[in-house]
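Design job #97: recover the sequence.
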């Protein structure tokens, strides 16, 4: 498996909208997409976004898809700044 973990800050008043957008996007049919997770740390206006793909090729195919850029712009509008991302191989059990 291959994926990414993103971290970003948001304004308190944007939390519910951000959660709705991210959860709605997790339902999109994207080739190779396996799991998505969103973590809101207690007491902080921060979010961690995790996207898991079957393999490196399906991850980068999505990353280079203009439809993914449109999804990014939708949730980016609710963030304080650009997310930081860490891409890589995912190990562990399903």
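Job complete. Output follows.
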């Amino acid at each position: 498996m291959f994926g990414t973990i993103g971290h970003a800050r948001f304004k308190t008043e944007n939390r519910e909208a951000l959660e709705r957008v991210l959860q709605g996007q997790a339902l999109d049919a994207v080739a190779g997409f396996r799991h998505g997770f969103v973590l809101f740390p207690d007491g902080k206006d921060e979010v961690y976004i995790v996207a898991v793909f079957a393999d490196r090729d399906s991850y980068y195919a999505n990353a280079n898809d203009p439809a993914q850029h449109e999804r990014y712009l939708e949730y980016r509008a609710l963030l304080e700044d650009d997310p930081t991302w860490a891409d890589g191989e995912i190990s562990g059990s399903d």
